[in-house]
Specification:
This protein is mostly helical and 279 residues long. The chain contains 14 helices and four strands.
């Protein structure tokens, strides 16, 4: 998106994407997405067989967050370069189907689609349940905007769900192929109690993290919690929403420093606003 000679990136300040991704509660959304992604047998096999997530969990988390931030807030060229790097990495990776023994590429469209949809649906659902005021139309707009992010990963934009109704249909289509496999159990347990960085394992940080992980899990759709054999009580939905809203307030009050990609995006947006005010 160009405004004069200022590149505002794939989305820009008037997008729903910029509003949603300004929310620190999306760290919880990322956990929710990982719980969902682990339920796809091939997707989780690809992760377990190709990554050192147990020994590099925080590095992997930060690299993923940096990638998402670059796609959302970076310039068009920065987003395209980030997408090209990820496509190049994925193109070299293979995994073995734990059921059939078949070798497969981890950049198969079905797997890329599953990762994309679970990620963006988790982002917008978590932000909304945490209290970000979004209309149904704005949710659809966000999902439509994020088709550009899916295209960076090599997906056909015409095949990507671009509304809440389309996402619901996609989940209904995928649910028969989802399962709680041993790798999914392994990943889910790891998400609850990963090794804490910087020697923080025996500090209050660990129970705080476990609380964050519990909120992420509680925000899952009931059908996903049922697959994990933890459907919850009827009050689970309400409790998870309340916890997410409290978490959003806590994150917003925390002294978190915005990253350089975000700050650069805000500067470019300010330049455009200043020029518009002078006209």
């Amino acid at each position: 998106m160009m405004d004069g000679d200022v590149d505002l990136g794939l989305f820009g300040p008037d997008s729903v994407s910029w509003r949603v991704h300004a929310e620190p509660i999306l760290w919880v959304a990322g956990l929710r997405a990982l719980y969902l992604q682990a339920l796809h047998p091939r997707a989780v096999a690809g992760v377990v067989q190709n990554s050192d997530y147990r020994n590099d969990s925080w590095g992997r988390l930060m690299r993923t967050a940096e990638y998402v931030g670059t796609v959302v807030y970076g310039t068009t060229e920065q987003a395209r370069r980030a997408g090209a790097r990820v496509r190049g990495l994925h193109a070299r990776l293979r995994a073995v189907d734990p059921v059939t023994g078949e070798q497969f590429r981890i950049d198969e469209p079905e797997l890329l689609m599953w990762v994309h949809v679970t990620e963006v649906e988790s982002f917008v659902t978590t932000a909304r349940r945490a209290g970000l005021a979004l209309t149904d139309r704005e949710v659809d707009q966000y999902l439509t905007e994020q088709v550009r992010a899916a295209e960076l990963l090599g997906l056909d934009p015409h095949s990507v769900p671009s509304s809440a109704a389309a996402v619901d249909d996609y989940y209904s289509l995928m649910r028969p192929s989802l399962a709680l496999t041993p790798p999914a159990v392994e990943v889910a347990r790891f998400l609850v109690a990963p090794p804490m960085p910087h020697g923080l394992g025996w500090t209050p940080v660990r129970p705080a993290w476990m609380g964050v992980a519990a909120v992420g899990f509680g925000l899952l759709p009931r059908w996903a919690r049922r697959l994990y054999r933890m459907p919850g009580l009827p009050t689970t939905e309400v409790a998870a929403t309340v916890a997410a809203r409290v978490g959003r307030l806590a994150f917003r009050a925390a002294p978190l420093k915005p990253g350089p990609i975000y700050l650069a995006a805000m500067h470019r947006a300010d330049v455009v606003r200043s020029r518009s005010a002078c006209l």
